[in-house]
Design brief:
Layout (H helix, E strand, L loop, with lengths): L5 E8 L5 H14 L5 E8 L5 E3 L22 H8 L1 H4 L7 E4 L10 H8 L9 H8 L1 H11 L6 E5 H6 L1 H11 L4 E5 L9 E3 L2 H11 L5 E6 L3 E10 L4 E2 L3 E4 L7 H5 L5 E3 L6 H17 L4 E10 L5 E7 L9 H9 L3 H20 L10
Parallel strand pairs: 1-2, 1-4
Antiparallel strand pairs: 2-3, 5-8, 6-7, 6-8, 9-10, 9-11, 9-13, 11-12, 13-14
Length: about 375
Amino acid sequence: MSMDKLTVGVVYGGKSGEHEVSLQTAFAVTNAFDYEKYELVPFYISKQGTWKKGSVMHAPFAQIEDLKLEQAAGGTQEALNALFGRLYGGEEAMDVMFPLLHGTFGEDGTIQGMFEMADMPYVGAGVLASAGGMDKVVMKKLFAQAGIDQCAFTYFNATQWKQTEHEMILQVEDQLGYPCFIKPANLGSSVGISKARNRDELKKAVEFALRYDTKVVIEEFVEAREVEVSVLGNDEPMASVPGEIVSSGEYYDYAAKYIDGQSQMLIPAPLDPEAADRIREAALQAFRAIEGNGISRADFFIRKSDGALLINEVNTMPGFTPYSMYPLLWRETGVSYAELLDRMIELALERYNRKQALNYENGVQA
């Protein structure tokens, strides 16, 4: 490894319904890094959970398929040896890890915990914020505790649905009515989400969502504008200008986000200065509510009937694809893609160094 460059381990793929999204993000990020400043080492996780570690990258990959490292000689053991090299002084130790994993086993705190055990600096939210930001039920409870307005919702798990399906349906109809949105509790990128207009559609939507998670969140339908804000920082986070999504479909689903590229992004969002400032402050409030670090994107609804601001969710590992709001909002705010990557790595090292100064001894002599 070079002595004058930071060695960055880029991790992508993963055992998640968002595997392909992760590859798109990794392709975009590895094309944006400054190879004069960093050495990138790719780590690919297959859909089955096996790892592959590639050689040091001297230039971006030519196509997304190259990210799967088909020619890599080593497997999971070699990849994890490099990851844990800091603990035993291995020559291949990374300086910082950059997880570009979306969904379960990636942005839910699991791999963040692995980095913590490996004593490895890493980009993005920590274990707690990642887990809280991934589980929509936990996240909504944190928002409620912080006093952040949000849509009405209810939730239940697969066992409750199986045993008391009729009661669960009545609960949804009584508390939320139709139409409503059904979502897996632990997934992002609008994977597994459906809109139900009646009882039959609700049943099908719940069964569909339970294919992706064991817990389901159901939210009231709100006729609203969709506005997003990017957040960057640790203890003193900054918020970008807001941007608005005008979806090409009935709602901003997986295809609209990652496939058709037809949804319109209004950057900055057409808002008066007071409303824009209010949304930016709410994004920072949500970031603090989940104990955020590094980065996040806060998604809001502005209800058309009365202009009420309602938080939808916080994403602790937002996409970096060509269609992604997160880097586009920062570009409009005055932070380039390359500067954004630099700052994310700086924040990772800053947080790691601060934790290194903590005392983990209990002071009691054995």
